[in-house]
Every structure is written in structure tokens, then in C-alpha cells.
Amino acid sequence: MRGFSSSSSVYACIVAQTKLFFEGVSRQYGTARSLAPTMNIVRMRGHDVETQLHLEEALFRTTGSNWLVVNDGVAVPSIVLGISGKPEVMAHVDDATRMGVPLIKRFTGGGTVVVDKDTVMMSIIVHGERDLPGVERFPRQIMEWCAGFLSGHMSAYGDFALRENDFVIGDRKIGGNAQAISGGRWLHHTSFLFDYRDELMGLLKTPPKAPQYRSNRSHGEFVTRVCDISADREGFVTGIIESVERQGVFKGLHISEEEAMDVLEKAKRRTGAVFGTKRLV
Amino acid sequence: MALRKLASEAATGLGVRWAAAPVASSSSTKTAIASVFSRGFATVMDGFKYAKSHEYVNMDGDVATIGISDFAQSELGDVVYVELPEVGSELTKGETFGVVESVKAASDVYAPVSGEVVEVNESLSDDPSKVNSEPFEGGWMMKVKVSDASDADALLDAKAYEAHCESGGH
How far is A163 from chain B (nearest CA, A)? Predict the structure, then answer.
């Protein structure tokens, strides 16, 4: 019929229109991503936990930025207590001293943990008021958001969930949580037990208040080692970092350890700088 | 907490808001009316003033009794430790005066008014749970002799605070 395009012209027209459509989508997506708030990502390995916690405190209190800090194992096995933890209540202090295990009080809440070269620590610092206003700045809501972005990665290890205040696989604890909330900003950290030594865990006393789901189980029956599920430590650590990058709110920016430690050095030089993290013994 | 949440959702669905029986404030002869708002099934005290960061102020002359609201304590969870300033400290409105620890979180608390700390609630060191069970009575944190009376005027009244909590504006 006269005025009707040949099939090849119609095809070319469809291709052209489709290309324009996807270019538009890509431009819009690219624009949205470029407007996303930045999450600075720092991967550390083998620092002592006191230095790590001082760094986190400096990033939390002296910058207005968002940060993910992953410390893949600490150099010196240490017992770390929450802000109000009493050493004599939470740990066998004499045994720890004899074994050369220091006791550190951190600036966040939560319970007492043992950390060593096989503990993977994740800390996430967010300017919630500015960059994540939909997540209320209270403990439960923060933990639920963190569980949400971790679930894609962690579900590869089993039935991952937030249970009471712990991250679990099934009914066994895989990560202990703690937080600090200050005005519009919050910090959440989790210590994951990639592996642990029984003789170090034995330095901790049973806490006066245990979660209900522990159900009077021994420590060994209550917690689980990640390595018992998968020996791929690099995959576990990388997956945590990729989870944050994938969660869709923040744009990840990898920062070197040196740049991050520079923030700590500047914070220490401030007049009157006081850190809540302290070595007790 | 689960029952509280269920009640909150039911109240919201029914559009219910009611006033409890009058409750005498701990520091004056005036009667403060306690009312409950649907968000989180929390209580506000009419006659008190509130900061957006959830500290309350109960004025008695030029002395402010300060603590955290019922809404805040319910969102934080079981309080296990409270760190308070020294008597005699000078506070500046908007700056942190202490820390409340609740199970997993250490949360800074902020001075809603400027002035000198004249008394702190020592009983909270033995029984921090009072912040949960009676935030407006036995769970008060400190008393401050206010240096500028207009500080309290600038805070939210009960109705405005209630709206602030219900809108999620925090």
C-alpha cells in the first residue's frame, strides 16, 4: 500500500526508538546514582582493636560523612566491654591478665566480646538525619536496616535473621551488635565470629542477662563459627562490603587505610580530645 | 513491647486518643495531665515542654527538671546505665549532657535548656530502669537552674511534641 514503510524501515525505527528509551533510562539512573550520598569504605586488616575503635570514634564524632569500616581480624586477642560493662562481672580478669589479653572499654553499648585474628568486625556510620531519614534513629530500627542489607549475602550461610538483638543463622548467634547514637548520626557495629578459640571464649563469664532465645544453652551450642559453614573468608568479608554497595541508598567510595587513619591522627591532635574507648587492664 | 505496638496500631486504626487520670507532678503543686498518643502507645505530660531530641522539661520557677520522654524510653528499650553530669556543671542548650545506654546502644542526651546543674538523680545508678518505668516521675535525670527563661519557651508543648513523634520527624 502506498505510504506504508517497508519492514526493514519499521525495524530500524523500532531499534532507534528502543535505543532512545534505554538511553533516557540510563541517563535518569546515572543522575540518580550521582545524587546518592557517599559511603566511604575502608578495609583494614590486623589492627589492634583499641586503634580500630579510636578510628571509628573519630570518624563518628569528627566527620559528617558516612563510613563502612571492615576490620578483618585484630592483631592482639582482646576482651572488649560495652560502655557500662564491669570487668569483674563480665570476665575472668586474673586469667585474662595471665594470658596477656587486654580488657578494652568501647564507646558503644552492648555486651562483652572476645576478638582476635579470626573475628571480622563491621562498623557502619551513617548521617541518618541527612542521608537515611526513613530509618528512625533508635536501636531496633537501625538493626533492622542493617539486617536488611546484609540478608542477601548472609542468606548464603543459612537462615539469617535478626533475633532479639543478635544476628543469627537458624537459632545460633553469628554476630553480636552494638551502637552509638548521637543527634542525627549513628554507628552500628557487628563482630562476626569467623572462627574462635575456646580458651579465649572461656575468659568471658555468662552475662547476668542473656537473650531469651539462648534457652540456657552452653556457649558452644549458642554461637556458630562462620568457618563451620564456609571456609571462604575472603568471600565472607567481600560479601559484607558488596552488600552495602548493593543496598541502593549509598554510592560506595573506597578509601585507603592511610586516609582513614589520617582522620584519627587529626582527631587526636584536637585540643581536649577525649575518647570513650579506653584500655582498662 | 509487642503488646504496646499492637495496642498502638489498634488505637491508630480506631482513631483513639484519650486522657489518663490526672497525675501530680513530682516537683510542684500543679497537676499535670497525662495523655496517651497512638504512636507507640506513649504518654505525654501536658504542661511539660519537649525538645525534638526527646528530652522533657518540667519548670518550677527557674529550676527545670529534665529527663527523657516516655516515647524515647520505649524506643530505646531497657535502660541499663545512665551517665549524668556533675552537680555544679554549666550546660549549654543543645549540647550533650550525658549518655543513656539501653541494651545495645549508647545514646547521647542533649540539654534542652542552658544553666547550672543543681541536682542529679543518684538513684538511677542503682536502678536505671526507672527511666523506663516512670520517665516523668522517678526516672528524672537532673535539675537545672535555668540561665535564660526563654529557652523553655522555645521548646515544643505536649501537642506539638506528640505530632512530632507521630510524624516520624526525628
Answer: 13
